[in-house]
Write a structure and sequence with these properties.
Structural class of chain B: alpha/beta
Distance between the termini of chain A: 77 Å
Number of domains of chain A: 3
Helix content of chain B: 25-40%
Number of strands of chain A: 17
Number of helices of chain A: 17
Radius of gyration of chain A: 27 Å
CATH class of the largest domain in chain A: Alpha Beta
Largest interface: A-B, 113 and 96 residues
Oligomer: heterodimer
CATH class of the largest domain in chain B: Alpha Beta
Structural class of chain A: alpha/beta
Number of domains of chain B: 2
Strand order of the largest sheet of chain A: 10-9-8-7-6-3-12-11
């Protein structure tokens, strides 16, 4: 069940790709030539479909070969409609430092059909409205997982119908009873939902439904990797390819099993190009709610840390129950961070930023060029409505604290930046406000720049208060 | 391909009968021989899962919606095709150095117990048959001066915040700390500039108050820390303290050599600190090896808070551990993570509005997730503060190491009321 002739994404050279490109240097892809495009493709910065001529009949065979060459060992599965389509899986590597992780795992929140209609609508709108602004980006939840608790196909269908009415979010239909899934699909098949799940007990009937609907399916075999492979193998023979694997999310005492199972599957898929394990993995932190005699907050706590561990260890999609902001926020932020390009710090360009209408007496502040630091400081300055200059120093994209510790932000770096960005021409005074977390550098900075240093707050939310209380600074 | 062609083709396939259909039913090797033809057939044969949504796969005797007879059924397996799976633990050529911290009376110190870290032979928690050699160690922080701290952390410290010895005792007795870290921030020339002698007295008090091994944290000033560490190394002769930390700044300030030599002479361990850069970590370690035995060196590669770059810390720890297991001896040291840094993220302590809940749980969760993430990456020692984060990390680490009962199932979540 392995494909030994395939190369990992890290072994594919730009030449391998170039050989199969049209090699006309037409530049229709936006790159100066085919070799440049090939390089971007192997670096994961461009997709092969970005070459327009390749999509024509003439290059059909080459495209096919390229798609095979570049196909990730973990298949990409899509669900949802064109406007809200989610890509799941598509993983190339085991370790993040090898190659940017692709397709951040969608987070689905469950809707149980034993809730009343009012509760359901309220829950759906909470899920849809959930957002958090982070480094200038809006982080949101991704899908609804409709669960049949009543075991009544009509009720399930009703809830699926109202979910479709009130929300555009992609759906996961959850029941191991084929009759219930059928009832749900009858009112939402055009949305191409993900179906949960095929099991040892329902595989024939559910397999039939999958073939008829063309929807992707979760194959579930909790704790039994041989059974999981058995089901996948059989379904492959049936002609079913759009599968997601559920090895079971064990919690509490058995949390170790979860990590072992997920890691084993992913390792086997990536190292051996194993075709039975080469599918995305479903993690279900929602499992912690299965009847433990615990307080809601304790369940939320467990669900939260389990979800973050699953994001770290290879889950490609998650189903959760809690919709508390404090449990979801760390997941959204961790997912964002883990799926960034490991080679490039998330950074902004160094330089001078002007806020409001600063005059020659306006404050001058410095910060790092780590994107999170910059956007946080920016929003705090705007909120405090301060007219000032902010000098963004090139700290190689590290936060102030890390940059000071790693010596990317030093007194001489500050001096160099003030000179480079002509700070002395901006204002007539010579007072520099440095971040509280860089307080250590104040003495040396005064020596190296000739500017007087004011140590600002440790968190930029205190900038407004500081300026109100300490600006303009009194001499001595 | 015209409709006429399609009909002709399906006729041919029917004529060929079950033999060809069987050929099409799956095996990849055989499919490769007919690759070109298949490209055409895919439009209307239920092969490779290419069944357009909403269209039934052709069944025996079925008539397609357009009235044309459908293809013969491709035989599908009626029973499960049984597959077996077993995997052996990974075997790496090298092993992380093992370091024991603290010393009992018979070993020349005064501790009731010691802790041993390192010794890893594989990436942790990847196989039930290869649990880590030693459980992860949790060290709770004590500061010798008031430091800015979120309410969620301060609230349980009210009685001890000005008494490092009492604080250390609480960490051990109430929260089960494996170790205690005494941060001597008051020695910072920019804060109180307390003398090495005074700092040493604080450490002495803590040594008397608790019987677990200690980590001694400096203030970050390369000259001052060197003086403080040298003083303490002599005072606590034989205690096998972990001095946190030695840096490239010390090398530049020419204080690295004396600190290393003092630590070696008096039998302590060292922590080499670098900022998220493996090359500088290796370079600093090479310098330290000139004056200090690698067998007693630990490394801190920098822990950044979730939301502030935790992914950099995660990746650098994964890289370092993998390289070390593959034989890079300059990285083959136990690692340490200052999880408490989680609290520098505003998401950990700031009021973000009602939908994000009170930060009395959000904050400790922030510290917990940072710790668990680096636990998965192989970190050996965790410097922590919040009791809830400490309890969770310890509990989860224990469970990750335990072999689970094969019979225990995963209860159904699909259909249960919540």
């Amino acid at each position: 069940m392995t494909d030994e002739h395939r190369k990992s994404i890290r072994e594919i050279s730009p030449i391998d790709v170039y050989k199969l490109l049209p090699r006309t240097n037409c530049a229709a892809c936006g790159e100066p030539n085919c070799m440049a495009f090939a390089t971007r493709v192997v670096n994961g910065e461009a997709v092969i479909e970005g070459c327009p001529p390749l999509l024509t009949k003439k290059y059909e065979k080459d495209l096919k070969k390229l798609l095979h060459l570049l196909a990730p060992p973990v298949r990409t599965i899509h669900f949802g409609t064109d406007t809200h389509r989610l890509a799941v899986g598509g993983k190339h590597v085991l370790y993040r430092h090898e190659f940017t992780y692709q397709n951040p795992p969608p987070i689905a929140i469950d809707i149980a059909d034993d809730l009343n209609d009012e509760q359901i609508n309220e829950r759906i709108s909470k899920i849809q409205d959930f957002k958090y602004t982070y480094i200038g980006r809006t982080l949101t939840l991704d899908a609804l997982a409709i669960r049949s608790v009543t075991q009544n196909p009509e009720r399930f269908q009703e809830v699926v119908r109202s979910a479709c009415r009130y929300s555009d979010l992609p759906l996961i239909l959850c029941s191991t009873n084929p009759a219930i899934i059928k009832a749900g699909l009858a009112v939402c098949s055009e949305r191409k939902p993900l179906i949960f799940a095929i099991t040892r007990d329902n595989w024939k009937e559910m397999g039939e439904i999958v073939l008829q609907s063309g929807c992707p399916i979760v194959v579930s075999a909790p704790g039994d990797l041989s059974l999981l492979r058995t089901l996948v193998r059989t379904l492959q023979e049936w002609g079913i390819e759009d599968m997601v694997l559920d090895p079971g999310t064990f919690h509490s005492e058995n949390i170790g099993k979860t990590i072992h199972l997920f890691t084993t599957i992913r390792k086997t898929a990536i190292r051996n190009f194993d075709t039975l394990f080469g599918y995305p993995l479903l993690g279900t932190p929602i499992s912690v709610w299965n009847g433990q005699e615990l307080s809601d907050n304790l369940n939320r706590w467990q669900e939260a840390y389990l979800a973050s561990m699953l994001i770290t260890r290879y889950a490609d999609i998650l189903i959760m129950h809690s919709i508390e902001g404090w449990t979801l926020l760390p997941q959204l932020i961790w997912r964002f961070g883990l799926y960034t390009d490991p080679r490039k710090p998330v950074s902004v360009d160094p330089g001078v930023r002007t806020f409001g209408n600063p005059d020659k007496n306006a404050p001058v502040l410095i910060t790092s060029n780590y994107a999170l630091t910059y956007f946080t400081v920016e929003s705090d300055i705007k909120a405090a409505k301060i007219d000032c200059y902010l000098i963004v120093i090139d700290t190689s994209g590290l936060s102030v604290e890390a940059a000071v510790a790693g010596r990317y932000l030093t007194a001489s770096k500050i001096a160099e930046s003030l000179k480079q960005f002509k700070a002395d021409s901006l204002v007539s005074h010579r007072f520099l406000i440095i971040p509280g977390l860089a307080a250590r550098l104040s003495g040396e900075t005064e020596d190296e720049t000739g500017w007087r240093v004011l140590v600002g707050p440790r968190d930029s939310s205190g900038i407004g208060q500081m300026i109100r209380e300490r600006w303009p600074p009194s001499e001595e | 391909m015209s409709d006429q062609d399609k009909q002709d083709f399906s006729g041919i396939i029917r004529m060929l009968g079950p033999g060809l259909a069987e050929l099409f039913s799956g095996r990849q090797i055989e499919l490769e021989h007919v690759e070109l033809e298949l490209g055409e057939l895919e439009l209307w044969l239920p092969l490779g899962g290419i069944v357009p949504a909403g269209i039934h796969p052709p069944l025996k005797g079925d008539v397609m919606p357009d009235g044309k007879p459908s293809l013969t059924v491709l035989p599908r397996p009626e029973d499960l095709i049984v597959e077996q799976f077993r995997i052996e633990p990974d075997v790496f050529p090298s092993q992380i150095r093992e370091v024991t911290l603290g010393a009992t009376k018979t070993e020349g110190g005064t501790r009731a117990r010691t802790v041993t870290v390192g010794g890893s032979t594989s990436i942790p928690f990847t196989h039930p048959d290869s649990p880590p050699v030693h459980p992860p160690v949790i060290s709770l922080d004590v500061f010798d001066t008031r430091v800015p701290m979120p309410k969620a952390l301060k609230s349980h410290l009210t009685d001890v915040i000005d008494d490092p010895a009492a604080w250390a005792r609480m960490n051990v007795e109430q929260f089960g700390a494996d170790m205690v870290t005494v941060h001597l921030l008051s020695t910072d020339p920019l804060i109180q500039n307390r003398s090495p002698r005074e700092a040493s007295r604080t450490v002495e008090e803590v040594l008397q108050a608790v019987d677990v091994p200690l980590i001694i944290g400096g203030c970050g000033d390369p000259k001052k820390d060197a003086e403080t560490f040298t003083e303490i190394a002599a005072m606590a002769e034989g205690e096998r303290l972990l001095l946190n930390s030695v840096t490239s700044d010390m090398a530049d300030a020419k204080t690295l050599e004396p600190v290393c030599k003092a630590a070696d002479k008096h039998g302590h361990c060292l922590l080499a600190f670098t900022g998220l850069d493996l090359n500088s970590a290796k370079e600093l370690n090479r310098r330290i090896y000139q004056y200090f035995p690698p067998e007693r060196l630990l490394i801190d590669l920098t822990t950044v808070a979730l939301g502030y770059g935790l992914e950099y810390s995660f990746s650098i720890h994964e890289r370092a551990r993998f390289a070390a297991l593959m034989g890079d001896m300059e990285l083959s040291h136990p690692t340490i993570s200052a999880c408490t840094n989680a609290w520098s993220a505003r998401e950990a302590w700031m009021d973000l509005g009602p939908e994000f809940g009170k930060n009395d749980l959000r904050g400790p969760l922030w510290e917990t997730i940072g710790g668990l993430t680096l636990l998965l990456a192989g970190v050996d020692i965790f410097l922590m503060m919040h009791p809830l984060a400490v309890t969770t990390l310890r509990e989860v680490a224990g469970r990750l190491m335990r072999k689970t009962d094969e019979k225990e199932g995963c209860a159904d979540w699909v259909s249960i009321p919540m």
